[in-house]
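Changelog entry

Holo records now carry the ligand SMILES as an explicit input line rather than a separate metadata file. Below, a converted record for zinc ion, shown in the new format.
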Amino acid sequence: MIIDTHSHIYLPEFGEDRNSMLSRAENEGIRLILMPAIDNETHLSMLEIEAQYPGKCLSMMGLHPCSVKEGYEQELKIVKEYFEKRRFVAVGETGLDFYWDRTFTKEQYESFQIQIELAKQYDIPVVIHSRNSIDECIKVIKENQQGNLKGVFHCFSGNEKQAKEIIDLGFYLGIGGVVTFKNSGLDKVMADVDMKNVVLETDAPYLAPVPLRGKRNEPAFIKYVAESLAKLKEVSYDEVVRNTRSNFYKLFTKVPMP
Ligand SMILES: [Zn+2]
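Structure line, unchanged by the conversion:
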């Protein structure tokens, strides 16, 4: 049983073939898919998919750093209201994105901080997006880590030092398609990272792994990520699946084990 811990399967990219896409995932042994929220434009479609596939597709709730712009206060208010209404599997995705735009840097920090506090309040993991901002995100987590904060650096693609810092903070590395990219350097980093700190993800529809790089990504393709990790760590595919699954349940303690 494989868990895709980060998949935007509610996006319109899957509007045409969501059912068959999910049966392809099922056939590859993917039994659980976690859906990270982006903003209020897609919250409802995410919640709809969760209701359609109960126990299989679980929602997070949060505000993506790329959606922190004019009106972000209203977006955060909506996120808080959702948390008052019901449980979610995690807060996210949140974090910092300095790749696209630095106009709202201050607001991104503020939004990240508010969501970290939600994660503490509800005792659930925080799922972090750290594009061009890994060190900055690590610093924020360090300042907030009083022992009870937990979460994932989603789509981790940093260096050895950053991996070690994240693990020392008690956080997990979300590993996806990037590990299969020859030029990423992540293969060398991962060769030295203990598998007990890793969870698997696709970030679908983005970042499809080799040999499907550039195509629309989907949860079924997670097998290429697991295969790649197995090769790097010189362990069996099954061991990667077993390890990452057990890590998942250690981190996402509110998700009932099957
Ligand atoms: Zn994402």
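Spot-checked after migration. The first strand starts at residue 2 and ends at 4. DSSP finds nine helices and eight strands in the chain.
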